[in-house]
Specification:
The chain is mainly β. The protein has five domains: 79 residues, no CATH class; 68 residues, Seminal Fluid Protein  PDC-109 (Domain B); 65 residues, no CATH class; 238 residues; 97 residues, Jelly Rolls. It is built from seven helices and 48 strands. The strands form nine sheets. Strands 14, 15, 16, 18, 19, 21, 22, 25, 28, 31, 33, 35, 37 and 39 form a 14-stranded parallel beta sheet that branches. A hairpin with a 5-residue loop joins strand 1 and strand 2.
Length: 627
């Protein structure tokens, strides 16, 4: 009996408790999937819940089976798309374990269409072939163009397409490409290995059968094909093999040989070689260049050579000597050279650059460090050939330090071999045994050069700052703390220094008519008063022209005149330039003569007297000349 009171929930009516007990029995033990609760709402019984779960589980199992089948299908498709694997010729007992494995079918033995066959979608794997075509053909399908697609997708697939570029990782791989391939272009992603900075785009020159392999712009393949580098304007040393951290001499030699052969055509065709930034160019040999080329090396040169020059420019005579452009903005260091202040010049040691023949060209070197012999040597000595001219060039140097000689010029003859009329600009030169050397004993024809130095600091002990045997040069120094030596063969050089002589300039001038001017002396130096001693040789060490003032007092005798002579000149025994004289008098009078004269920087002066009378001078007054 069911009461169905319809009381609201919650209810304390015993009749509702009775109805709830009945409904609980239907929930737990009833066979019907649903029952009505005391409020008339249908509820799912445990029997109904079990039926729903069983139905759902069947659906899930079906979905799982379908999913597994789909995964298997997609995996087989993946295998197929991943490439095909040959299992050889069709024969009995050949096992095809995957759907991307195939056999080659010969029509003569099977009577079927010849080609490559793989397991079809309905075949059960692994599939063991019986060798009977009538049986096996039901489980096999012809590949058609699938293998072709695979070959096109391979590393040599581009070679099968006439318009596509083949991609290879190195020059050695490029040599293996066939000239019979439909593709006549290739891109090499590295010289020795992919990504090492070498390589580039190449094309096959089918008409060329004679060009030699130069290791860079022309690569001869194993079948004789000539692959040629496509370039515009310049070629990198990297494309000749200057990659990695090993020595790059062989690559540089190959590149120079190519550049010289390309530049020999005309001045307008000077070939250009480059080397990128962010690494080092590692050299040990001496590289001679005869034909004008352009070279721009953006990284530091690390030179481990022990003798000769790293680069010899104009190494042998060439009628063409204009249009050079050699730029090393990062500079060069001799890594096997000086490790501390040099104590001498090692004439047999390593130098960075020697220039023998060059005109109307440019050189730029950022730093020159630690070369036992020289940093830059402009060689017009004619020690190799006649007409070693280095003239009318623009030369820019940065920091030059710790070399035997920082900058060296040597000229044999103004007519046939000389370093002349160059514009040389230096940022800082210091701590070389000799900072700068303009000619030496027996050589004095490095002339008409304009040399601008922002700073020349102290040279190494025992050496000198500038030693000049040359003439007609102009030197402009922003600051000098070093020695300036002008030898007897030097004349008409003009030297201007920004600082005054008391701040570290050491001047020695035994030449003729050199003009050396320093910054104005301090007020503690000039004006100055000098003692009245006669017959004393004095020198103008103030670094500027000076005016010497004084008054001579002369008294003759009745039978002899009295003379005061003034001597001025560049030699330590200066010549006479003027004199004051009083003739003999019966009644001698004391005569006074004011005088003044100008003395150039570095010149000597002396006052001397003659006669049997008396002579004296007042203290000499010295001040800076305005002329």
């Amino acid at each position: 009996m069911t009461f169905n009171t319809g009381n609201n929930v919650p209810s304390t009516d015993p009749r509702d408790l009775y109805d709830n007990a009945e409904n609980l029995d239907k929930l737990v033990n009833g066979a019907d999937p649903f029952y009505a609760d005391r409020k008339g709402v249908l509820r799912e019984s445990w029997a109904g819940m079990k039926n729903t779960f069983d139905t759902s589980q069947t659906g899930r199992e079906t979905a799982f089976a379908l999913s597994q089948a789909d995964k298997e299908s997609r995996f087989q498709a993946f295998l197929v798309s991943s490439g095909y694997v040959s299992k050889g010729d069709y024969a009995a007992n050949v096992v095809l374990a995957e759907r991307n494995e195939y056999v080659a079918v010969n029509a003569a033995t099977t009577g079927a269409s010849p080609g490559l066959y793989r397991p079809n979608a309905s075949a059960t794997l692994p599939l063991t072939l019986t060798g009977t075509w009538a049986t096996d053909s039901a489980n096999l399908v012809l590949l058609g163009d699938d293998v072709l697609r695979q070959e096109l997708a391979s590393s040599v697939g581009a070679a099968m397409i006439g318009a596509a570029a083949q991609v290879v990782p190195s020059i050695s791989e490029l040599r293996g490409l066939l000239r019979t391939s439909p593709s006549k272009s290739a891109f090499v992603t590295g010289y020795s290995a992919q990504g090492d900075g070498g390589g580039g785009p190449y094309y096959l020159d089918a008409a060329d059968t004679t060009s030699a392999d130069n290791g860079g712009t022309v690569i001869v393949a194993t079948d004789g094909g000539r692959w040629k580098l496509e370039y515009k304007g310049s070629v990198g040393l990297e494309q000749f093999g200057a990659v990695g951290t090993e020595l790059h001499d062989d690559a540089v030699s190959r590149a120079i040989a190519w550049a010289e052969s390309s530049s020999i055509v005309s001045e307008a065709a000077n070939a250009k070689l480059t080397f990128g930034a962010g690494k080092t160019l590692n050299l040990q040999q001496s590289h001679e260049i005869t034909v004008p080329i352009q070279m721009e090396v953006l990284s530091m040169v690390h030179d481990s050579g022990s003798s000769g020059a790293c680069f010899v420019i104009g190494a042998t005579y060439s009628a063409r000597n204009t249009g050079w452009s050699l730029k090393f903005p990062a500079g060069a260091r001799c890594v096997t050279g000086n490790t501390e202040l040099p104590t001498s010049v090692n004439a047999a040691g390593r130098g960075f650059m020697e220039v023998r023949r060059m005109q109307f060209s440019e050189i730029e070197i950022g730093t020159l460090i630690a070369y036992p012999n020289h940093g830059l040597y402009l060689n017009g000595s004619e020690n190799v050939f006649v007409n070693q001219h280095v003239q009318h060039n623009r030369i820019t140097l940065g920091q030059i330090a710790y070399n035997g000689v920082g900058l060296k010029l040597l000229s044999n003859s103004a007519e046939t071999g000389g370093v002349q009329a160059n514009d040389i600009r230096i940022q800082d030169v210091f701590s070389n045994f000799h900072n700068m050397e303009f000619d030496t004993d027996g050589y004095s024809n490095s002339t008409s050069n304009l040399v601008t130095v922002q700073a020349m600091d102290l040279h190494a002990p025992g050496g000198y700052g500038l030693n000049c045997y040359s003439s007609f040069n102009r030197f402009e120094f922003g600051f000098v703390e070093s020695s300036l030596l002008f030898q007897a063969t030097s004349f008409y050089n003009v030297v201007r220094c920004g600082n005054n002589q008391s701040s570290g300039i050491q001047i020695s001038d035994v030449g003729t008519s050199n003009w050396i001017l320093t910054g104005p002396p301090s007020t503690t130096q000039l004006p100055a008063t000098i003692g009245p001693e006669l017959e004393v040789v004095r020198r103008n060490n103030f670094g500027v022209p000076i005016v010497v003032y004084g008054t001579a007092t002369l008294t003759p005798t009745s039978d002899s005149s009295q003379t005061l002579a003034i001597h001025v000149g560049p030699a330590s025994s200066p010549g006479e330039v003027m004199k004051c004289a009083v003739g003999a008098m019966t009644n001698p009078n004391v005569m006074q003569f004011p005088f003044s004269f100008i003395v150039k920087p570095g010149d000597y002066y002396k006052l001397s007297v003659s006669g049997t009378g008396t002579a004296s001078i007042s203290n000499l007054y010295v001040t800076q000349s305005s002329v």
